[in-house]
Amino acid sequence: MRLVARLPMPAIHRLGAGLGLLVAYWPNRQRRNALMNIALCLPQLSREEQLALRKRSLQELGKTYFEIAYLWLRPAVEVLSLVREVRGAELLERRDGKGLIVLSPHIGAWELAGLHLAAQGPTAIFYKPQKYLDDLIRAARARSGAALAPITGKGIRVLVQALERGDYVGILPDQEPKADKGAVFAPFFGQPAFTMLLVNRLARRTGAPVVFMFAERLKGDPGFRLHCIPAPEGIDSEDDIEAATALNRGIEQCVMTCPDQYVWPYKRLRRRPEGALKVYTGPIDDTAVFRHVARLHG
């Protein structure tokens, strides 16, 4: 990682795109799962368009993996200088002494989005402790002043306290929750996805507004464009299904801004309603994937 971090970003992106092409052409589960998700979530695309999107998204994912070394190990001021534009920057302004919940889906460079957020003011970031490289991840994400709150009851209390002080709270909202408590099935691109209620609980308890923010990788430029988008109405609803649906609708809006840069191989639909067919199963060739998607669509 330290060797990769020494390279200029254009070279890192070329390496990542090359790795992505290998994954796109060599039969493997990542490739299968990406096509499965794209075909399920974007049925309006033709098969040729779905396959083309799969190829481009795996190239972008390769860039994501390689550029993490740069984003983690280069000085924070150097990394933050990669931000070329912030669209909707006014949405990051905190008003009336309230904190702000900022949601960064797995699109583009989410590590850069988190670093930029913490540079705007006191920030607590919800994160999952890792078995490997945890010290490096914590140090990298804390470079611009963020406090790391682990995915535990104690971590949730840290988030609540931060919002009550008027701070920022950063959350990755498109991960599948592990436990039944605090999650419900809600539509994600028309598919039932097990969806967290944490954002809803925090918004209702503290009155903090919710904003989506993600970093889009620019073409022909080693930099990034940050997008800030207001959360859909209903994200703070007392109705769990309405709140989770609003959360997923916000993620969908972010994804469709730059669909190539969403992490399509992630098993977002692994958990299924009772009696529903499993998604990520069967042979890994494309013909079998399309057959299975047809069965899932019913």
UniProtKB/TrEMBL annotation:
The keyword Transcription regulation does not apply. One of its GO terms (cellular component) is plasma membrane. It holds the Pfam family Lip_A_acyltrans. GO terms for biological process: glycolipid biosynthetic process. InterPro entries: LipA_acyltrans. GO terms for molecular function: acyltransferase activity. It is found in: Cell inner membrane. It comes from Thiorhodococcus minor. The keyword Zinc-finger does not apply. This is Lysophospholipid acyltransferase family protein. Keywords: Acyltransferase, Cell inner membrane, Cell membrane, Membrane, Transferase.
